[in-house]
Amino acid sequence: MPRSIWSGAISFGLVTVPIHVVGATEDHSIRFHRYHLADQGRIRTRKVCELEDREVGSDEIGKGYELATSQIVPITDEDLRELPLPTARAIEIVAFVPLASVDPIRIGDGYYLQPDGQVAAKPYKLLRQALARSSKVAVARYAWSGRERLGLLRVRGEAIVLHAMRWPDEIRDPSSLTPPPVEVSEEEIEGALALMDTMTRDDLEGDEFRDTYTEAVAELIEAKREHRRPETVPEPEERPGQVLDLMAALQQSVSKAKESRGEGDHAEVRELPGRKKKAPAGKTPGAGGAAKKPAGEKPTGGRATGGKATSKKAAPKKETSKSTAGKKTAAKEPAGKKATTRRPRSA
Q: How much is the pLDDT for 258?
């Protein structure tokens, strides 16, 4: 169990819940040291007094506020502990709000709040169950490390979690970063929503959410320790150049997302309403048979009329032989219409 970071109480109206604060997260990043390249001696940061030009120990170091270059106001830990704040030894709940009303940019690191002994068990459980049933979070004030902070209390399993929050004036105004005015069509929005649907997940489990960088660094260290070459990294897939047609980019993205989820080797991407494909010049299919299409692409059922392609529903297909990859299928003409063959114009 991680060590206690802070001890105090949750103040909930007239209810007090004694608690210990422990870290809720762990950092698994690989740390590096600085060393001298010539002899691999460790390079350390030493604390040196500028006036005496000598290294000093921790017991000789204090903190203070610099009014001027030659004037320091010393501040001790006792001075900070004795500040006249109700939040100095308590996490004081001041409001309950829906979680959706809190901008995630204000939410910081998380800590578990552990009940301190048997006396805290019942009020702790009462607050946890009340939070869970209300579907709300608590906003509190508390003072740590020489400053007062805002916090957000929520339920995670059987525990209460405290998230540090930033004050409103600590969030920078993003208005200067907004792009210039542009028009986005409704079909482009629908295309983006279709892409979101194909990328929607029920949880954040899987290889996509694994820390592959840390794994690669660990493998690099192990390879160097064993005096062998690390595994070669496969070349990244070449990205196409800048796509000016936003709808084409969205449709390609939907297709790739479906393929990555195993929904067929060639995902079918339906064209959104209002968008018509122009038939290539001089390649209009005859009425007697289906036009040749690239492998894997389904016929759209378009018929040549007056030199312009009009989009019609694809007629049901009738297989002429056993279904095998790469064999052609003939399109059946709608009932009641006779096939007509156009004669080529004479030169």
A: 79
Beta-bridge partner residues of 48: 55
Task: Say which amino acid occupies 274.
Answer: G
User: What 3-state class would DSSP assign to 65?
Assistant: strand
Query: How many whole angstroms separate alpha carbon 330 and alpha carbon 339?
Result: 14
Q: Please give, one letter per residue, the 3-state secondary structure of 166-222.
A: CCHHHCCCHHHHCCCCCCCCHHHHHHHHHHHHHCCCCCCCCHHHCCHHHHHHHHHHH
Residues of the chain with pLDDT under 70: 1, 86-88, 146, 233, 235-244, 263-347
Exposed (0-12), middle (13-18) or buried (19+): which is 8, by Cβ within 10 Å? buried
Q: Which of 128, 163, 142, 148 is nearest to 90 (CA)?
A: 142
For 303-315, write each residue's pLDDT tens digit. Answer: 444 444 444 444 4
Here the tokens at position 81 are 């502990």
